Fold:
Amino acid sequence: MSNQVKSKQRVVDHGEVFTSEREVNAMLDLVKQETERIDSRFLEPACGDGNFLAEILKRKLQIVKQTYKKSFSEYEKYSIVALSSIYGVELLFDNTLTCQKRLFDIWNNEYSSVCKNTANDKCRKIAQHILSLNILCGNALSMKRVDENGKDLEEPIIFAEWSFVGDKVKRRDFRLDVLLKENEDESMYNTQLSIFGDTADSLDYWEIDPVTNNPIPKAVKEYPMIDYRSIVEYE
Ligand SMILES: C[S@@+](CC[C@H](N)C(=O)[O-])C[C@H]1O[C@@H](n2cnc3c(N)ncnc32)[C@H](O)[C@@H]1O
Structure:
């Protein structure tokens, strides 16, 4: 586990105090069932170097191993499903990279140990690709991407949603501010959507759910459904 404080200055500037392993586990135990469901989605908006996300990944991979260790191909796929459901935003560039690497190392150590000589670099690249899209350097308050100095860019934070059906996966990209707005309002039904500006209220980012008739977030980009082993080619 990383040290809880890297420097006094970072505590003052960014409130950077990492959570201890004991506290992380106690808090995750409050939602134990979700942490042990392979495809349950977790987003941590100030993830630091990944103390919570690392533990969630370990718990999910434990279930993947228990369930699929007899089939290398199933283990491989479900370990990717587990990884693809974990998301983080972090303001500081060094923490973001450390978090991505830490999650990759946890995934890769398990993958290499379970799949032995069937483990391959093509799948490792898939894992790295997902982490580069799921763990983003950004400002969770403004919901914008940030540069290497932590300054807001004009770009909104956009996350890829990975939906698996058998060996196939569909990627749809959503703006984080729009996803959070949906959760923030009990019903978006009465919210005025705007035809002006590029904000989370913009009509461009919502569509009507044909079943409930309520506005739901609209993907800013949709990709064709493809074999999960080909997702790196999406780019
Ligand atoms: C108290 S630490 C917690 C880190 C981690 N969640 C943990 O529990 O170990 C807060 C983290 O949030 C980051 N942070 C501060 N302001 C932020 C912002 N506006 N958006 C995203 N991350 C932010 C800091 O760099 C720091 O890594």
Remarks:
- The chain has two domains: 8-156, 175-235.
- The mean pLDDT is 93.
- The CA atoms of residues 10 and 16 lie 6 Å apart.
- The pocket of S-adenosylmethionine is lined by residues 14-19, 44, 46-48, 51-52, 89-92, 95, 139-141 (CB under 6 Å).
